Request: fold
Amino acid sequence: MSLPDNSLWENVLAGDERAFEALFRQQYPALYGYGLRLTGDEEMAKDGIQELFQRLWQRRARLGQLAEGAVRPYLFKALRHQLANDARAHTRRAGWHTAYAAELAADFHYSPEDFLIAQELSEAQRVQLLQALAQLSNRQREAIYLKFFDGFAYDRIADIMGLNPQSARNLIYQSLHVLRQHLPPAVWLLLLSQWALQVRLFFNVFTNN
Amino acid sequence: MELTRYSVDDFLLDESFQAYVADAESAAGLAWQVWLREHPAKQAEAAEAHALVRALHQARRPALPPRLVDTEFQRLQEAIRPVPAWPRLRSQRRVRGVVGVLSALLLLFLGVSWWRGQHPPTVRYATGAGQHRTVRLPDGSVVVLNANSTLTTAAHWTASSAREVWLTGEGYFQVKHLATKPVADIAAAPAAVKFVVHAADLDIAVLGTQFDVNSQDSTTKVVLASGKVAVARRTWLTRESLLMQPGDLVETSTARPQLSRRQVPSALYLAWTKGFFEFHQTPLRDIVQLLRDTYALRVSAADPAMLSQQVSGAVAVTKAELLLPALAEILDLRVVRTGDAVRFERAR
Reply:
């Protein structure tokens, strides 16, 4: 199971069912988390991942190799596309207003409550942080999430969200700026005190040597 | 850009700085620590950036519903490998069809008889809410079952049969040592010499020692008081194992299936069997961890300094509802409980 993701991918393309299962199990939690955030709906997230992997298996002969570390971003991008299509199809079936369908597909529901904040923050401080996150647009929240939670580099985020790398960077820049403006001083003080503690620990280690 | 001209935003956007926040011991982290020490003038801005990135890093994946990946993978398999439609029986094929059904029934019958031979009758011990139960096994080992737990074993044990039990819930095992000569590899020892507890995905093998196994809905934990325990996790494709040392807690969960190990004050984790906690200058930090591990409570403290306060003495309860007020009184703190969330605050 310690195979790099791209050799697993290569084996899947070659038709290895065990590799397919390993890939599914390896990527499922991250994809589920992302799908849930995009749709806010467990069934839609699960169905989207099902369709994604079904198509992946059916079309494996026509898919190309990926670089190491590129498998998850590829799957994220494909899931995003899949869920956008599903949302459009869903709205068509339900006969909703087309403008709303377009809005839903273009602008995913991205709930700030999904950010579970550190336990060391009090309930009030946690709420303040969530309120700051709520100031962001859906796209800004999605970018922040891909950056700081899934740990993707700017160019990967750009690829997943269909932006150019500079726009992805700008999106995150704006988001962080908004967050800084909306965080009340109390939260800052607490977060800063923890940083100070960490630095002090480091310096102690340093001077002991 | 020159690092010395970095603003808070520049620190925030720098991917190597983000890597430092994620892991201060990484290459990028160490480089930043050295750089910041040499540039005290930039520390304030870096601190602000660090704090925000750190807060954002706290975002966590939602817990996956138990067994979701398994059921979803099954669903996927069914979808990509559709069962071929049953061929319509033509008259000349009907006889073959009947023969086929009969042979299938015969095979099923043989299979069931074989399975019954392989799986002798079992006996099941269970506890309800608030109940404890002590079970003496035929080999002399003793198991204390906590509330809402079941233990299943073979009904008849012989000197050569495998010593193995199946557990759901929590049990404290005192296993009798039967090995006559030293055994190097516990997992490879003969089945009648080692003692194996099966709980969720785990096989917990010992020769003779005391340990606690707690297997709840999505998480299984093993705590070892003394001696050695070999823990193996087996799933369809993976198999990983490790050898526990005294004081170790090993954990697996559906969210993080890989075995993880940390040191805990093991006596606290076994206190439920005796009905009281004994604290010897135990820092609140350890007790908070215990509450998280064994009562699935989300515990926090208003002030990190509280976590270093020490508790000594015996508390004659093991229920969280009673332990929490007792701790509050000993430490002169206030405990606020809302559902599963517990918070220690300064008394007014």
